[in-house]
């Protein structure tokens, strides 16, 4: 994070293809201390993780992967959390 230049911290809750699980609560705390918005792509783990309960500001899902399992169509969902 570059002080004064970074506005948003964006990451995947579980990265694809490595399956690395992000420490969402700690990343959120760090970002919020620096005044950043936290956006998490939760496409890979919607039934496993709920970033909305872990301190993030916005959760993003790729609907395309849910519908047919590949990128033959384009769709998406953006969920902004209201506090």
Give structural notes:
It is a single chain. The protein is α/β, with parallel strands linked by helices. Helices cover 18% and strands 22% of the residues. It has 2 helices and 4 strands. A 4-stranded mixed β-sheet has the order 1-2-3-4. The longest helix has 10 residues. The relative contact order is 0.19.
Helix % is 10-25%
Please count the beta strands (DSSP E, at least 2 residues each). Answer: 4
Number of helices: 2
Strand content: 15-25%
How far apart lie the N and C ends? 24 Å
Helix and strand run: EHEEHE
Largest sheet: 4 strands, mixed
- Supply Rg: 13 Å
Task: Please give the order of strands in the largest beta sheet.
Answer: 1-2-3-4
Mean pLDDT: 82
Structural class, please? alpha/beta
Global outline: globular
Architecture blueprint of SSEs:
Blueprint: E1 8-12, H1 24-33, E2 37-41, E3 58-61, H2 63-67, E4 77-80
Parallel strand pairs: 1-2, 2-3
Antiparallel strand pairs: 3-4
């Amino acid at each position: 994070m570059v002080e004064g230049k970074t506005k948003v911290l964006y990451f995947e809750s579980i990265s694809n293809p490595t399956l690395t699980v992000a420490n969402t609560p700690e990343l959120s705390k760090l970002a919020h201390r620096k005044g950043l918005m936290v956006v998490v792509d939760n496409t890979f783990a919607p039934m496993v993780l709920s970033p909305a309960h872990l301190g993030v500001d916005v959760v993003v899902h790729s609907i395309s992967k849910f519908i047919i399992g590949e990128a033959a169509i384009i769709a998406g969902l953006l969920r902004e959390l209201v506090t």
